[in-house]
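Priority: medium. Attachment 1 of 2:
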């Protein structure tokens, strides 16, 4: 099946730029809380075993690197002031549930645009249906930061989606038949070769 989407970069609208800047407010708050935690934790373990403190350094470094990657994404998006506009025809919606060993369950939601899949949040998943042509304005670098989502055409392509699914199934069946015939030919040639020798 082909991909039924296209992406383009466009400048941020003023309200989208404001939303991006509003996300920066949480960074100093998080830094203060994280710094306070580190300060109190280090004061508690100064006299403790030295090996444990290295494990803590490792975890703190790991989270620090992740936090720096997020800040970098904000900074680059603010510098470029561009967004990614994604337009596509939803050919399939999928809900995947999984359970952890402790019995907790989580659900992930996906839109498929032909072969391309996009993980979405529940509110976006419920907003659109299969065979809808949609447009999603999202951040280029920040995971799951969606500025806007629009319905371009609702359900007018149901016949086209059905036709695409039928074509895909026919291609898969044709490939299966070709593989089966190829295997039979190879086995027949091998048997003929061994019967002659």
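Attachment 2 of 2:
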């Amino acid at each position: 099946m082909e991909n039924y989407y296209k992406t383009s970069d466009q400048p941020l609208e003023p309200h989208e730029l404001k939303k991006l800047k509003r996300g920066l407010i949480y960074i100093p708050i998080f830094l203060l809380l994280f710094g306070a935690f580190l300060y109190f934790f280090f004061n508690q373990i100064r006299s403790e075993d030295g090996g444990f403190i290295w494990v803590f350094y490792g975890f703190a470094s790991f989270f620090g690197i992740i936090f720096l990657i997020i800040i970098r994404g904000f900074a680059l998006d603010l510098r470029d002031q561009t967004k990614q506009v994604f337009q596509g025809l939803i050919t399939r919606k999928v809900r995947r549930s999984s359970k952890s060993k402790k019995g907790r369950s989580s659900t992930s939601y996906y839109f498929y645009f032909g072969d391309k899949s996009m993980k979405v949040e529940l509110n976006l998943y419920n907003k659109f249906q299969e065979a809808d042509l949609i447009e999603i304005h999202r951040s280029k670098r920040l995971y799951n930061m969606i500025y806007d989502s629009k319905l371009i055409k609702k359900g007018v392509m149901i016949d086209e989606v059905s036709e695409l699914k039928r074509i895909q199934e026919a291609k898969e069946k044709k490939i299966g038949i070709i593989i089966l015939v190829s295997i039979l030919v190879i086995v027949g040639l091998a048997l003929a070769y061994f019967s002659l020798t």
